[in-house]
Amino acid sequence: MRAVVVHGAGDLRIDERPDPVPGEGEVLLAMEWGGICGSDVAYWKHGASGTAALAHPLVLGHEVAGRIAATGRGVAGLREGQAVTVHPAEPVGDAPLPGRIAGRTNLHPRIRYFGSAAFDPHTDGGFSEYRVVRAAQIRPLPDGVTTEHGALAEPLAVALHAVHRAGDLRGKAVLVNGCGPIGALVVAAAKHRGAAAVIASDLSATSLAVARAMGADETRDLRSGAVLPDDVELAFEASGAPAALGPVLRATARGGTLVQVGNLPGAAVSAALGDLVTREINWIGSYRFVEEIDDALLAMRDGLDVSPVISHRFGLDRAGEALAVAADPASGSSKVMLRLGGARPPGTG
Asked: One GO MF term, please (predicted)?
């Protein structure tokens, strides 16, 4: 089978690997679609994502969907040909979480994640024609949800988790700063959860157009001189840019809530944070998701349309070009999708 493998910074290859075979409790997926995430770009450009650095070649991709090609022993309730996506997280070890975070499996101290170099050996992702997956990580797609959209259940789950962290949005005005794919999906998730109005802000007119298509009631183009609104009860910071923190804190109402969903740098940065104290703002972190991937699939089944966030589609053999487009701010890209294939029977070469 073919797989999209990063061997080091700037070294991306389409490698031939043996077709995998499912073991007990596993299923073999014929992959169809994958969405490129910022971490995929980081491994390709820098050989690392955050503190996770490549020690060996790594198959990229954690936003994926396909169809079951075969099941291993002991797998029940799943059938060949079934369209599915994958919950890419697998906690390592069975030690219970402290009671204060019971059930919040995204905060487990050690988690293997598709397409991650956090452990050695690394955890290969799903940008390949086939992938063996634990049956417990499989999530069947509802009727009417395509595998292309199913591949976006993972980033939509990130957005829904952020909205869940914010509490009840019904009837509230919401600010979403940063309208890349996650920010645009936060816009859609906020509207889905009953926000009365969503104001979206960004430096890119293209990103703001996506946010409008995803349901934003108003957009602010910060590069063109627009400013953030005043006294918004609830804000989501989705850019991850330290320079944005001061203005977004100032836009958040006294006693309001700011949910940080954009990844901030792991190194020291300069940011204006005084309003966090003087305005008594609740600043909440949001990391990946727990089981909101199930909520994402139900939301898509019920009409939440993720298609406006998709800007480009490439075949697996053009993965290098796809990553370059996803990494280039001038490309006007939002979510770049890879058509992974999975049409041939395994073992046929």
From this structure: oxidoreductase activity
CA distance 287 to 136: 21
Angle between helices 153-166 and 292-301 (to 10 degrees): 110
Distance separating alpha carbons of residues 130 and 51, to the nearest angstrom: 28
Q: How far apart are CA 338 and CA 32, in angstroms?
A: 8
| CA angle at 294 for the pair 64 and 155, rounded to the nearest 5° | 45
Do residues 146 and 175 make contact, with C-beta atoms less than 8 angstroms apart?
no
- Please give the single-letter amino acid code of residue 111: I
Q: pLDDT tens for residues 307-344?
A: 999 999 999 999 999 999 999 999 999 999 999 985 44
Cα 199 from Cα 212, distance rounded (Å): 9
Task: Give SS3 for 35.
Answer: strand
Pairing between strand 63-71 and 83-86? antiparallel
Count other C-beta atoms under 10 Å from residue 123's C-beta: 20
Closest CA to 314 of 297, 331, 291, 293: 331
Domains of the chain plus CATH, in order, are 2-152+306-339 (3.90.180.10), 159-285 (3.40.50.720)
Q: Which amino acid is at 86?
A: V
**Phi, psi (degrees; rounded to nearest 5) at 128:** -155, 165
Looking up tokens 């073999």 gives 28
User: One-letter amino acid identity for 238?
Assistant: A
Instruction: Look up residue 10 and give its two tokens.
Output: 């700037």
